[in-house]
Design a protein that fits this description.
heterodimer; A: 224 residues; alpha/beta; five-stranded parallel sheet; four-stranded antiparallel sheet; 14 strands; 41% helix; 25% strand; globular; B: 383 residues; alpha+beta; five-stranded mixed sheet; 9 helices; 53% helix; 21% strand; rod-shaped
Chain lengths: 224, 383
């Protein structure tokens, strides 16, 4: 799957490419609008990551060009501005998602997966990880042909782990993914233990292997 | 007055005496009945001048008269000349003169006053204009001060000095504000880079426990930095009034939505709720800012409550009251100040209440804190 990263900060785009490259995404970088427009004209991308403030103009103009050309590439706006106006303008221009800088790479990866899933309607809504099958349309999980009854949070957690499989996910990243903007209501991130414990219990009850590993208190890793 | 009247009478008498010598006194007739000449029975010549009230039948009133009775010898025969003159005419004259004078003086004085008043009003107009504009002066407003044009050198100087002063202040304020804004804004990207690199570092292997702990701490610090930065940016935006869109909102709706959002963290601490939203409060404000305002107070209540305690959320008249149990009173003076943290919680960044205060300032709401029956009570008065 091809992804275009339109970002002028080289260090940041390198991080994104490194992280996403390990997930079988083919990434390309455009450090300014000119290069971005050239690339968009020549190729189709599954997802475009678009920074708003670029050296040669406002990133939103790329969105306008995409719309004029009737391109169906998925677009996620990444912006340091964290401005509601940009968010609204971007979403109105047809962006699929908006993620303010700074973000966790695992969160970005989850959002990209969601955008790509939504863009493809041809049965791609089934995610398989060994014996675990996740239907992202019906939001159901089956393992070993048995339905696993997960709560919404547990389902989110499993989806997040599956998309970021074989990665160490920090507690902060997990907590923020689960609680969104409410993360600072918690004095600590202990609450994720409870959800992880319950999710694990329900999966092992239907005979799943325990894929989830705790990494030295730093975070968790979903691996086989 | 009296003197001139007497003189006048004497003149008349002298003239009559002269006349009498040339004509026959018995034939003397006066065209004025106030002059009377008749034969006298005393041959003594004398003049007597006195004032006496005389009844005037024509006017049917008694009027003070000045009377001259003079006995004189004409051709050896004594005659009495009697001249009477009403004094009232002179009094009238006197009165009217006095009245006229007085009227003139009053007219002059009032005229002077009016002119004075008008003049000073006109003269001080530029000054008052400056004063009234200074009264509403705000260092954070972008208005260019345009004072009334004037020809008075002093006021012109004053106006110019003040204009320069406000311009200097505005510029200084702007640079300072821009610094916070730019600093926070420019920090976003390096923080994002750092967080990305830390995340990539986590993925490397092998990682020892020692390294893992270090990475975890870097990650937490980065996370806090990010939150701090984001909040500072938001604060600057509120100060810059970059949330101009307002709409009609119901406070109860907002509170209910936030309570749903915070259900999970509240459950985590097993908190009890007492919710009495009987009063409907309608406000016109930016929905995002109201979310932040109420959300901050609610999340504070959740965060600073101990497990199993009660949080009460009420609407009383035009205010929202949120109370949670606590051990000791917070320092009210520092409560709404930037970075004046009053909890030992290192996760807190100390900007939440300042932000709430700023939002309240923006919409002229009031936020109050008091401690009663070991409860921290925050009241937001929407008015």
């Amino acid at each position: 799957m091809k992804i275009l990263v339109i970002e002028d900060e080289a260090a940041l785009s390198k991080s994104i490419i490194t992280y996403l490259g390990q997930e079988n995404y083919l990434c390309e970088v455009a450090p300014n609008i000119n290069t971005a427009v050239e690339k968009i004209d020549s190729y189709d991308y599954d997802c475009i990551l678009l920074d708003i403030s670029l050296p040669d103009g406002n990133g939103l103009s790329v969105l306008k060009i995409l719309k004029e050309d009737h391109k169906t590439d998925g677009v996620i706006i990444i912006s340091a501005k964290d401005s509601i106006d940009d968010k609204i303008a971007g979403l109105q221009l047809g962006a699929d998602d908006y993620i303010p800088k700074p973000f966790h790479l695992s969160e970005l990866s989850a959002r990209i997966a969601a955008v790509i899933r939504r863009r493809r309607f041809n049965g791609d809504n089934i995610l398989v990880f060994h014996e675990i099958t996740i239907d992202t349309l019906a939001k159901t999980v089956t393992a070993n042909n048995q339905k696993v009854d997960l709560t919404k949070t547990e389902y989110d957690l499993l989806l997040y782990f599956t998309i970021n499989k074989n990665r160490v996910l920090s507690k902060t990243a997990i907590a923020e993914h689960l609680s969104g903007e409410n993360a600072d209501v918690y004095d600590n991130y202990d609450f994720i233990y409870a959800h992880i414990k319950n999710m694990k219990k329900k999966l092992t009850a239907v005979g799943c292997n325990d894929y989830l590993k705790s990494i030295y208190g730093m975070g968790y890793k979903f691996e086989y | 007055m009296l003197k001139s009247l007497d003189e006048n009478i004497n003149h008349q008498k002298n003239w009559i005496e002269k006349k009498l010598k040339t004509t026959n006194p018995d034939n003397f007739t006066s065209f004025e009945n106030s002059i009377l000449v008749r034969p006298s029975n005393t041959s003594k010549t004398f003049d007597s001048l006195y004032s006496r009230p005389v009844f005037i039948p024509d006017d049917n009133e008694i009027v003070m008269h000045r009377i001259l009775v003079s006995n004189t010898l004409v051709n050896g025969k004594p005659y009495e000349i009697r001249i009477q003159k009403s004094m009232i005419e002179d009094e009238d004259l006197l009165n009217s003169i006095l009245l006229l004078q007085l009227g003139l003086v009053v007219l002059l004085l009032t005229g002077l006053m009016v002119i004075n008043l008008q003049l000073s009003k006109k003269l001080w107009k530029p000054f008052n204009d400056i004063v009234s504009k200074l009264k509403v002066y705000r260092v954070d407003s972008d208005d260019d001060y345009q004072f009334m044009p004037t020809n008075i050198e002093e006021f012109k100087n004053l106006g110019n000095s003040i204009k320069e002063l406000t311009k200097r202040n505005q510029k200084l304020y702007k640079t300072q504000k821009e610094f916070t804004e730019n600093a926070s804004h420019e920090l976003q990207t390096p923080i994002a880079v750092m967080q990305g690199k830390v995340e990539l570092l986590m993925q490397t292997s092998p990682i020892s426990q020692e390294q893992a702990e270090l990475i975890e701490e870097i990650s937490l610090a980065g996370n806090k930095m990010q939150r701090l930065n984001r909040t500072l940016l938001l604060l600057t935006k509120i100060e810059n009034n970059q949330f101009p869109n307002t709409e009609k909102l119901f406070v109860n709706n907002k509170v209910q939505k936030l309570l749903n959002q915070y259900e999970e963290p509240a459950q985590q601490k097993n908190l009890q709720w007492e919710i009495l939203l009987n009063n409907e409060i309608e406000i016109t404000a930016n929905p995002i800012l109201i979310d932040i305002l109420i959300g901050n107070i609610l999340s504070n209540a959740i965060r600073h409550s101990e497990n199993g305690y009660l949080i009460s959320v009420k609407t009383v008249q035009q205010s929202l009251v949120i109370a949670n149990y606590g051990k000791k009173k917070l320092n009210e003076k520092d409560l709404f100040q930037r970075f004046k943290k009053q909890s030992e919680n290192t996760n807190s960044i100390g900007l939440g209440l300042e932000m709430s205060q700023k939002i309240c300032d923006l919409y002229h709401f009031k936020i109050q804190y008091h401690f009663d029956k070991s409860q921290h009570i925050f009241t937001i008065i929407f008015n």
